[in-house]
Amino acid sequence: MADKTVENNLPFPWNLGVFDAHCHPTDTMTSISDIPHMNATALTVMSTRGEDQELVDEVAKRLGDYHQELKQGNGKIVPCFGWHPWFAHQIRVEADEEATSKTETTEAIKIQHYRNALTGSMGNEEEDNHFFNTLPTPKPLSVLLEETKTRLSAHPNALVGEVGLDKAFRLPMPWQEEELEFRDAGLTSGSREGRKLSPYRVTIAHQKALLKAQLQLAGQLRRAVSVHSVQGHGAVLEVFQELWKGHERKVESSRQRKKRVDEEKIEREAEQDVDGSGQETELTPLPYPPRICMHSYSGSPEAVRQLLRPSVPSDVYFSFSTVINFTGPSVKWVQTSLESLPDERILIESDLHTAGKRMDDLLEEVVRTVCRVKGWSLEDGTRILAENWRRCIYTVATPEY
Ligand SMILES: [Zn+2]
User: Fold this and answer.
1) What is the whole-number distance in angstroms between the Cα of residue 317 and the centre of ligand 1?
2) Is residue 312 part of a domain?
3) Where do the record's region annotations for Disordered lie (predicted)?
């Protein structure tokens, strides 16, 4: 057990490598130029909606993908492409297509789509239709998946994210003209930005269909995923279990596990052509994502146990942020699940919407907190967390980067 007071005063070991497992710097594009000056080694940058997919792609191209295994560790970005549950209604899943197939006009299809995908009402049909009309024309799921696949293929180390389920979320009301006047033009559009909430929620069936399709894409391309889950841990587990069914892992001895990890490493290196032979091998697609990061995790210790069952074929990691996990009423709860988690499945994140000093500060704070709760020395803990991140993103951990 490390001495707390001494540990708290130690200078922070940035040189060991500190990785933000989940953040949204493209929400504030003016902060992107701060990234090269940050202490953090690399940022796992999420996309969430129509407005930020291109931005994440562009930032990764500008600042460089962090290719640890290719020893091109000069890039700072691991781009992630996914559609967040808060924007799930903007996607037309198959069930809506069936429901709207008898309707002819685009306008009518749009109204019918929102009628299916949303629950809640303003109280009468006219007001509901008026609200639905302020929403964008939905994008077919097949188009979204094609676009995401193209972006993932352009970035061989990219993840699928941010995806997930959210039972608490309600759609914001449309912008009022007077609000638009005072809107911060430096923020990437599309998010709530303090607007009042409407009575409409996206049905869980709709959210599940979108989540499942994106998890399947991650499996197909053997990418890790970053998953958001708010009041929906049971439903998220149901979606995972649908994909895991029939593929459960036989309980492995530690020797068997090492053998599998070594084999995965060889496969991965072949895919990335690390030996320079010019031969690239495609990894065999999987019906489920190989690695899952549960971001800003707030599930119960029982939910953690379910996700860590030896039969689960995905490696599930749990990521913690200061803002969501270590402030407010959930602190005790989080400490209990953090204490019970195996060392090798813990990640840290800022979950912040602006890059720069505050992001570094939050990362330092959460590393220090996790080390304290786990009884790790600051150096050991920083090393463990860095290695966990590499293993989650790239399958294998290597001692140097
Ligand atoms: Zn997020």
Assistant:
1) 15
2) yes
3) 251-285
247: which 2 tokens?
Answer: 């593929």
119's enclosing H/E stretch is strand 118-119
What separation in Å is there between the alpha carbon of 268 and the centre of ligand 1?
27
CATH number for 248: 3.20.20.140
Distance from C-alpha of 103 to C-alpha of 101, rounded to nearest angstrom: 6
Is 246 exposed, middle or buried, given 0-12, 13-18 or 19+ CB atoms closer than 10 A?
A: exposed
Has residue 401 got a pLDDT over 90? no
The boundaries of the domain holding residue 230 are 4-83+143-184+222-394
Tell whether 177 is covered by a domain.
Answer: yes
Tens of pLDDT along 170-202?
A: 998 887 877 777 778 888 888 877 788 889 999
Q: How far is the CA of 13 from the centre of ligand 1 (A)?
A: 26
**pLDDT tens by residue, 270-321:** 665 544 444 445 678 999 999 999 998 888 888 899 999 999 999 999 999 9
On whether the CB atoms of residues 25 and 359 are closer than 8 A, the answer is yes
The stretch 331-351 carries a mean pLDDT of 88
Residue 192 lies in a domain: no
Alpha-carbon gap, residue 342 to 356, rounded angstroms: 31
* Strand ranges for 34-133 from DSSP E: 42-45, 77-81, 91-92, 118-119
Please determine, for residue 140, whether its predicted confidence score (pLDDT) is greater than 50.
Answer: yes
Cα radius of gyration rounded to whole Å, the chain:
21
Expressed in angstroms and rounded, the spacing between residue 165 Cα and the centre of ligand 1 is 12
**Whole-Å CA distances, 45 to 48, 347, 398:** 10, 15, 22
Q: Average pLDDT, whole number, for the chain?
A: 87
Could you tell me the two tokens for 221? Answer: 């391309």
Task: Please state the domain count of the chain.
Answer: 1
Cα-to-centroid distance, 48 and ligand 1 (Å): 8
Distance 374 CA to ligand 1 centre (A): 24
Dist. CA 136 → ligand 1 center (Å): 22
